Amino acid sequence: MYLQITKLHKNFETKSGTLAVLKDINMSIERGEFICAVGASGSGKSTLLRQIAGLDLPTAGEVKIDGVRVQGPGPDRGMVFQHYTLYPWMNVQENAEFGLKLQGWSKRERRERASYYLSVVGLTKFAKSLPKELSGGMKQRVAIARALASEPKVLLMDEPFGALDIHTKESMHEFMLDLWQRTNITIFTITHDVEEAVFLSNRIYALGARPGTVRKEISIKLPERTHTVKRHSIFHDYCDELMDLLRGHSQEALAVAS
Q1: What are the distances in angstroms from CA 256 to CA 21, 41, 85, 210, 211?
Q2: How do beta strands 60-65 and 3-14 pair?
Q3: DSSP the chain
Q4: Poorest-confidence range of 88-92, 147-151, 185-189, 194-198?
């Protein structure tokens, strides 16, 4: 397996005692897959992503990328956040080069590499523009180009389209599918948007809450990957199955809390 998560637990110590956020998470992801982890608030989605990114370490268990245990951040993982995290005083080209600059690439090398990925995301003409001159979707494409420039083994995405309006979000979904098919990169994203997960992914891990656990793994097989597939009954069947899973667990959590 390319990305392997094994018996992962994550606890936090609070004034009230130990809080279990993730419990016995097991995931196996092959090279070139597009995987979504879906869950409501409290399911530990962001905490899980931080474990994979190496921004935090698990209480127990492990994460491996291409057979190597994750023990901190590294260029083998590219990260895209919900909010674009672009530097407002840098133009598009400079933002796309920034990670490579931190890694010590020469000026010529990072310019060539970043320029290539700006062309991949369709923003070559905007290389000299500042972030304030871009739309929300364009800003997110710059962030994706910056993440891809390091040619990571896995692209990690933290609800990357949550801040976009519905029309921009739909166009970004189609953009991401095209990008994934052209680059064959492994993508792992978290979201609470059930339709987004079904439309984008090969497989979905449905997470329950308090603590976060994998309730079910669902393989997604759609007849096509264009916006018209959302009219198909199979698309709605997948969405209904996921919603029932998430809704059912929310009701269980409320019952336990009361």
Answers
A1: 16, 16, 38, 10, 12
A2: antiparallel
A3: --EEEEEEEEEEEETTEEEEEEEEEEEEE-TT-EEEEE--TTS-HHHHHHHHHTSS--SEEEEEETTEE--S--TTEEEE-SS----TTS-HHHHHHHHHHHTT--HHHHHHHHHHHHHHTT-GGGTT--GGGS-HHHHHHHHHHHHHHT--SEEEEESTTTTS-HHHHHHHHHHHHHHHHHH--EEEEEES-HHHHHHH-SEEEEEETTTBEEEEEEE---S--SGGGGGSHHHHHHHHHHHHHHHHHHHHHHHHH-
A4: 147-151
Locus of tokens 């069947």: 237
Render pLDDT for 199-247 as a digit per residue (tens, 0 to 9): 999 999 999 988 999 999 999 999 999 889 999 999 999 999 999 998 8
Tell me the β-bridge partners of 63. Answer: 5
Paired residues of 50 in beta bridges: none
Q: Which two tokens stand for residue 60?
A: 């127990």
- Contact residues for 255 (Cβ-Cβ < 8 A; gap 6+): none
Q: What is the pTM of this model?
A: 0.91
Phi, psi for residue 36 in degrees, rounded to 5: -120, 135
Structure tokens given for 198: 């079904």
